[in-house]
């Protein structure tokens, strides 16, 4: 028998609408239609124009048969077309697959085949690798997606043709040929997939992380709340939009009626120029990009607008970098997350009392991965074997686990990996950390990055933080090197700042002053460190070089 609160109180279109970030675009076009939405070189679009362009793209895709469950892949830089794809594809209840622009042809072909891409939107810059990938798709997988090519006004390289491909369309001509949809509707079910993003493959195939409209909506809101992002932010795209959908910021900017300041290339000059020209107030990046700005000549930083806020994730920011950002007047917020939780899912919330601490203590506090996002239901440190929560004593190590609406649906076509990652009602990150009494989490290492030397556990992050405090170090990574006596010892790979020099002996001595003796690197190699396109250091390559026991993942 139903209770009084179930009688004549039905869910109707008037009182229940599924959550989708597509609704943010419609609202901004409706109420802020005359305000700037996208800036890219000479191209400027208002929110009304951006909504119109996105609705024209959606109409064109619908004409190609794209609808619920169809996949649209993109091979795009941070351009207006990439913003529009984030609005148009979900509006059709289709699934967006943003390809990493640094991948090789076989992996691009593998991913497009795996997610069954029906359409590919690609920039002319990537024509050579895309032509190879399409050939592999045709020859090995018998798949021929519709191709839409973008001629970006800001691309200065050779505009090579994709090659002979039936069904190729030019982006602007396609938009002009279609009447915009009357409404960017979104899905009928908020649990429907909005995107599939591939994790990095190391020894096996990458995994396709499937996310849903509800999670994207909630994390977009979380971004604004966490950052106290004001209405009408001016957001600079230094983070690739292909990286877990730009941490949901394409939708966060739409939520706030802000301006996307697009940037094709990442270098200090271009970033500082964009900040000055467009009065940028927010941007996101991996630590390597922030370090690039800290290391830039002082002259490049002159005239920066005040109050710039930056978000850092991808690796624990070293204290030296946090201190460096403070010196140049950029307020840094440290967030933590993974593709499986839509990008950021935890934040080192800066309490008012922190401002009274000296810069060293502020760096320590901000260096923690922090507390769960406001709309993430659970973040816990647990024993991965028993799932028992470990004490919040700042010493006991556990695995970081999440649960809630901002967790992926699962891995595409990989039931075993999905069940393993979500076992026990928690998403298992693989990151090992401690939690202090304030419930702020501090990562000690990835489970595979702990160095066990003579029976003692060494955190590679702790050693790296010591190295980053040397003024000559631009980037570093520490991995385990096999040792006949100790089992493993720390091996450091180091990149130096331009124009600066140091020696192995000097760096070892520097670390010895900051660390216990057994934690000090036994060897330092001055080599270029492999990184992803988002600036994240690829330790698996370094472990392979060093022949670490954990090189096989």
Automatic annotation (TrEMBL):
For this protein, the record's Gene3D superfamilies field holds: 3.30.300.30, N-terminal domain of ligase-like
**Keyword line:** Fatty acid metabolism, Ligase, Lipid metabolism
Residues covered by the AMP-binding enzyme C-terminal domain: 462-536
Q: Which residues form the AMP-dependent synthetase/ligase domain?
A: 26-412
Pfam families in UniProt: AMP-binding (PF00501), AMP-binding_C (PF13193)
- What family does this chain come from, according to its entry? Belongs to the ATP-dependent AMP-binding enzyme family.
The cross-references to PANTHER family, in alphabetical order and at most eight, read: ACYL-ACTIVATING ENZYME, BUTANOATE--COA LIGASE AAE1-RELATED
Protein name per the record: Acyl-CoA synthetase
């Amino acid at each position: 028998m139903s209770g009084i609160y179930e009688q004549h109180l039905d869910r109707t279109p008037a009182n229940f609408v599924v959550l989708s970030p597509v609704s943010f675009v419609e609202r901004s076009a409706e109420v802020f239609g005359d305000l700037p939405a996208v800036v890219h070189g000479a191209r400027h679009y208002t929110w009304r124009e951006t909504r119109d362009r996105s609705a024209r793209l959606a109409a064109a895709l619908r004409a190609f048969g794209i609808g619920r469950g169809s996949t649209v892949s993109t091979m795009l830089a941070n351009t207006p077309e990439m913003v529009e794809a984030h609005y148009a594809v979900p509006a059709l209840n289709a699934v967006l697959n943003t390809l990493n622009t640094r991948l090789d042809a076989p992996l691009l072909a593998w991913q497009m085949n795996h997610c069954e891409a029906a359409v590919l939107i690609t920039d002319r810059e990537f024509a050579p690798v895309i032509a190879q990938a399409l050939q592999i798709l045709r020859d090995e997988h018998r798949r021929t997606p519709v191709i839409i090519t973008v001629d970006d006004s800001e691309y200065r390289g050779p505009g090579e043709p994709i090659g002979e491909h039936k069904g190729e369309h030019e982006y602007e001509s396609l938009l002009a040929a279609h009447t915009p949809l009357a409404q960017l509707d979104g899905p009928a079910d908020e649990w429907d997939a909005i995107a599939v993003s591939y994790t990095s493959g190391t020894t096996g195939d990458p995994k396709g992380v499937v996310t849903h409209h509800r999670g994207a909506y909630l994390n977009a809101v979380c971004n604004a709340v966490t950052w106290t992002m004001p209405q009408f932010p001016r957001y600079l795209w230094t983070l690739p939009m292909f990286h877990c959908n730009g941490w949901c910021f394409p939708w966060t900017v739409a939520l706030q009626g802000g301006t996307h300041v697009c940037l094709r290339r990442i270098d200090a000059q271009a970033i500082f120029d964009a900040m000055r020209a467009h009065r940028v107030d927010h941007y996101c990046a991996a630590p390597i990009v922030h370090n690039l700005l800290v290391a830039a000549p002082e002259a490049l930083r002159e005239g920066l607008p005040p109050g710039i806020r930056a978000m850092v994730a991808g690796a624990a920011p070293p204290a030296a970098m946090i201190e460096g950002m403070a010196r140049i007047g950029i307020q840094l917020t440290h967030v933590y997350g993974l593709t499986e939780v839509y990008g950021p899912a935890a934040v080192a919330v800066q309490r008012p009392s922190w401002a009274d601490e000296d810069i060293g203590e502020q760096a320590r506090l901000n260096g923690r991965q922090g507390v769960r996002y406001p709309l993430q239901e659970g973040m816990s440190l647990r024993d991965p074997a028993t799932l028992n929560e470990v004490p919040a004593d700042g010493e006991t190590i556990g695995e970081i686990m999440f649960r809630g609406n901002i967790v992926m649906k699962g891995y595409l076509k990989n039931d075993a990996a999905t069940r393993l990652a979500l076992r026990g009602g928690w998403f298992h990150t693989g990151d090992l950390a401690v939690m202090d009494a304030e419930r702020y989490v501090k990562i000690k290492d990835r489970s595979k990055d702990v160095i066990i030397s003579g029976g003692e556990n060494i955190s590679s992050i702790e050693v790296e933080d010591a190295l980053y405090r040397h003024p000559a170090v631009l980037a570093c990574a520490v991995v385990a090197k096999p040792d006949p006596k100790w089992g493993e010892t720390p091996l450091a790979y180091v990149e130096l700042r331009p124009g600066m020099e140091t020696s192995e002996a000097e760096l070892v001595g520097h670390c010895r002053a900051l660390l216990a003796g057994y934690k000090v690197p036994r060897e330092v190699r001055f080599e270029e460190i492999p990184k992803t396109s988002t600036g994240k250091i690829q330790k698996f390559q370094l472990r392979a070089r060093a022949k670490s026991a954990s090189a096989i993942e």
